[in-house]
Each structure stands twice: as C-alpha cells, then as structure tokens.
Amino acid sequence: MLEISVIIPVYNAAEFLEKAVQSAVQFEEVKEIILIEDLSTDNSLEICEQLSTEIPKVKLFQHPDKGNHGAGASRNLGIEKAAGSFIAFLDADDHYLPNRFDAEKKLFKDPKIDGVFNAIGTEYLTEKGKEEFQSKFKEISLSTVNYPAEGEEVFKGLLSLSTKTFGTSFHLNSLTIRKASLEPHQIRFNKELRVHQDSDFIIKLAYHCHLKTGNITEAVAMRGVHDNNRITKIVKYSPQYNQRQFLLWQSLNQWAISNQIPAEPRKRIYLMYKSFDLSLKKGFIKYCTILGEVLKNPEILKTKYRFTYYNR
C-alpha cells in the first residue's frame, strides 16, 4: 500500500482549512497530513493546533524563525519533514475528491514511474471570486491535459514543444511523487518566487523525473475560487503580470543553463525569459533592444510577448 504524506502550506486559510484536511484524512493511503503554518494574520494557527490535537494523522510545523516565507519555502519544509514514501500537495483552500489516489494505486506498481498527475475541477466559493475568475479566464470546469503522456513527452508538452497541444497543464493538487525521486537532483521549490513557484517546480520535475498521466478525464480534486485568490487579481500582460512571468522564466533559464539541458528546450526557455525581460523595458531603449533581439532570435515573436500599451 502507498504511504503518502500530504503537504498543506497554510496562510490565512482559516475559513477553508478544516475542509481541506478532512478531505485528505479519509484515505487509508495517507500516512500523514503536514501543515506548514506561515505566520497567518487570521486564526489559521489556532485551527492548525486544534486539528493536530484532534486528528492523529495531522502534524503541525512552522518555519524555525516562525516567520512568513511563502508557499515555496513552506512546501520545501514539508518535504523535509515528510515520513511517507510518496508526497502529495494540497492548497489550504482546496480539497480532494474520493477518487484522488485511484490512478496512483495502479500506476506506481511500475517502479520507473516517479510521479503521477491527474485532472482537477473548479469550485466557486464566492460570487465575487467567480466574477473575477471568469472575467480573466474562460470557463474552466476541468484543468487537465489533452492526451495521455509520460516521460519526455510531458516535459515537451509543458514547454509547448510537442507536436500536439498539451492543454492547460496540471495543478499541484493532482500530483503525487516518490519522495526518493526528488533527491538525486535535489528538486525543490524556488523559495525566491512568491508566485509561480509551482510552475517552476513542475517543469524541473518533468525534466528530471518520469511523470505519467493518471486520470485526466475526471477531477480528483477541486480548486476553490474566492475573493482572495491571487490568480484573479492580476491583469494579463500588465506590468505586474509581466514581472512575475519574468521571474519565473529567469529562474528556469538559470536552471536550464546550470543543468545543461538539451538545446531545443533550453532555447525555448531562453526565449520566454527574454520576451518578458523585454516587456519590462521602456521607451526608446526598449524598442532598440527588441529589434536587436528579434534580429538574433526571430522566434521570439512566437512567444507570449506582446507589444501592449502596458509596456510603453
């Protein structure tokens, strides 16, 4: 039987936390639920303490300095504390469905598989959150990929290097990985990224490990959309959006260079990094720099870079 450690970073999630924890407790495969409380300003810590007292599977940790370090650092601490052979993640405002680990029980019988990912659904918890989400994104009832994939095809799909459109990627809530598979390359979340550390982690994981699709036609977890979701607060291609994307692709570009990954994905990552780097420049220097970069790398025009009014 699988022994899974579920890691939940907790920051100002008092309203949702108990539901998240209870959704993980139900599984026999879940050995422990690790709460990493990240200096919340609401009563999340009190709820964490109550849950860890009442439910034997729940273990509570804080950072050594009891400070706020972000979701990436919190998940890293959870990985270090995990005693299970497998690791799964859950956001504190989301929850698992009863079929969460059905695919894993079958697929992890193959020792070459390091990780399995599935589809997740969307649950609107507030009307304002629903309006904000739907104003920025098309209606997404299921976040999943478009076809079964494993190994190198997953990595290529995430970078849009596959001959087929990979889809809307996958969410951490749907991922289960062998803890031992993280260690050869010390795969961890980039704690310097306050957002997009999940995307950064998933792309690196897909390169170093053998990932495989599980259930990609039905949700195995639900993402909660509410008033305080950070994803709904940022206008696409606004300066703040471009800055966050720049930091993500800068992190991946540095990783690609240091790990000497193959030329095709390395170039793709560089072009994405450079496109958002250019988007942050202003005035005459910006357009001179864009021209120079396009002359060197015409493919940059095929990236997500946009000549928008935000960048003038």
SSE topology:
Layout: E1 4-10, H1 17-25, E2 30-37, H2 44-54, E3 58-62, H3 70-81, E4 86-89, E5 95-96, H4 102-107, E6 115-117, E7 119-124, H5 127-136, E8 142-143, H6 152-158, E9 175-178, H7 179-182, H8 197-208, E10 211-213, E11 219-225, H9 239-258, H10 263-279, H11 283-296
Parallel strand pairs: 1-2, 1-4, 2-3, 6-10, 7-11
Antiparallel strand pairs: 4-9, 5-11, 6-9, 7-8
CATH topology type of the largest domain: Spore Coat Polysaccharide Biosynthesis Protein SpsA, Chain A
Secondary-structure-derived class: alpha/beta
Rg estimate, integer Å? 20 Å
- The dominant shape is globular
CATH architecture of the largest domain: Alpha-Beta Complex
Order of helices and strands: EHEHEHEEHEEHEHEHHEEHHH
CATH level-1 class of the largest domain: Alpha Beta
End-to-end Cα distance, whole Å, is 57 Å
Task: Kindly report the spatial arrangement of strands forming the biggest sheet.
Answer: 3-2-1-4-9-6-10
The major pleated sheet works out as:
7 strands, mixed
Keywords: Glycosyltransferase, Transferase
InterPro entries: Glyco_trans_2-like, Nucleotide-diphossugar_trans
Pfam family, one: Glycos_transf_2
Protein name: Glycosyltransferase family 2 protein
